[in-house]
Amino acid sequence: MRFATKAVHSQKNHNDSIGAIMPPIYQTSTYRQTIGDSPATYDYGRAGNPTRTALEKNLAELEGANHGVAYASGMSATDAILRVLRPGDHVIASGHMYGGNYRYFKFILEPLGIDVSLIDFSRIETIEKTLSPKTRVIWAESPTNPLCKVVDLELIAQCAHSVGATFVVDNTFASPYLQKPLTLGADIILHSTTKYLGGHSDLIGGFVCTDDDEWAEHLRFQVKCVGAIPGPMDCYLVLRGAKTLHVRMERHCANAHTIARYLEGHSNVSQVIYPGLESDAGHAIAKKQMSDFGGMMAIVLNTSTAQQTRSIVNELKIFNFAESLGGVESLIGHPATMSHGALTAEERIQLGISDNLVRLSVGIEDVDDLIEDLDQALSNI
Ligand SMILES: *Cc1c(COP(=O)(O)O)cnc(C)c1O
């Protein structure tokens, strides 16, 4: 089965005696057990739920993975993976990543005595130089949040495997429709399902998948012990969202492309960062490892202060000024004061997250309305 058919038909409710097409939302915390039976598939809601199982199977299938585990949020998925690390272990990640993960590496992992190297992934030599026999995990995101930097996942996978480290890819920005990290050498894939997989800005969720049986066992044990599980209703919402992922992504990509071209020629925009533009630093690698370039872009405005940037953004009528991304509606964010507000000013400058940088999550509206909206707001600079 091809992607679009799998997205729609996987985890069809074949076993239902009344013929319901959709999987039921099993809103239950516990399950009746029968003495003498073989061990029950489900005993308690923290350990398992059939709606959650349906979601895990569906998303694993979309990534082409053998195992999948769903979480209460993308951050609890991050936490689940990194909990295998012990004091003295070494982890390498790109400084360019989702601000919440950056905060996790700095303020949760490091104080536990784990050696964290946050480095620049644009040159593979830098990663090679940072490798040590203690490196257990290499963590990459591509395209990155918020600067849409693209890194060569195949090369980084080789690097990780040369020292026996696990290669984790945060595939949230691309979604499984545009990029399949397992086929590029990743060992583990992470998603914030809050974003494209859910797709409607109505839930918080996370997901991890892998082909590695040992990792899968760790993840299942971890989620049962710690309990950062999504509720049945949220699982259902992600399942419902994932059915239209391919259709939504196609419109996200087409709209983003048209908007990037429009902004490239705008006199009040000094830079457009979108991997779909031929001039973009990540274009060649994105073309190699993604089937299209996604709906996210970063732009640098000709504004002089964070306050002026925020006030221009505030002029938009269709784009909502809000955190998050990947929903059907267009959103705009100001990373310096929002997603990356936890970083110091120095760290932000070093990463290129300037006060006049804004991030667009291009929705699936009529692109002409989106361009007219940007046009009227940018005319105020
Ligand atoms: C949002 C996001 C996360 C965190 O997910 P939550 O669902 O907000 O906990 C992780 N990685 C990326 C790339 C994200 O955009």
Summarize the structure.
Helices cover 37% and strands 15% of the residues.
Structure notes:
With 381 residues, the chain is of the alpha/beta class. The protein has 14 helices and 12 strands. It has a 7-stranded mixed sheet, with helices on both faces. A 5-stranded mixed sheet has the order 8-9-12-11-10, covered by helices on one side. Helix 4 links the parallel strand 2 and strand 3. Helix 2 runs parallel beside helix 9 and helix 3 packs parallel to helix 4. The longest helix is centred in the C-terminal third of the chain and has 20 residues. The mean pLDDT is 96.
Task: Give the SSE layout.
Elements: H1 3-9, H2 50-63, E1 67-71, H3 74-82, E2 90-94, H4 99-109, E3 115-119, H5 124-130, E4 135-141, H6 153-162, E5 166-170, H7 175-178, E6 188-192, E7 206-210, H8 213-226, H9 232-242, H10 245-264, E8 269-273, H11 283-289, E9 296-301, H12 306-313, E10 320-321, E11 331-333, H13 345-351, E12 357-361, H14 367-378
Parallel strand pairs: 2-3, 2-4, 4-5, 5-6, 10-11
Antiparallel strand pairs: 1-7, 6-7, 8-9, 9-12, 11-12
Helix pairs in contact: 2-9, 3-4
Give the mean pLDDT.
96
Helix tally equals 14
Distance between the termini: 50 Å
Q: Which small molecules are bound?
A: pyridoxal-5'-phosphate
> Main sheet: which strands, in order across?
1-7-6-5-4-2-3
Number of strands: 12
Tell me, briefly, the overall form.
Answer: globular
Which series of helices and strands comes N to C? HHEHEHEHEHEHEEHHHEHEHEEHEH
- The value of Rg in angstroms is 21 Å
Give the proportion of residues in helices: 25-40%
Give a quick account of the main beta sheet: strands, pairing sense, barrel closure. Answer: 7 strands, mixed
Strand content: 15-25%
Low-confidence runs: none
Structural class: alpha/beta
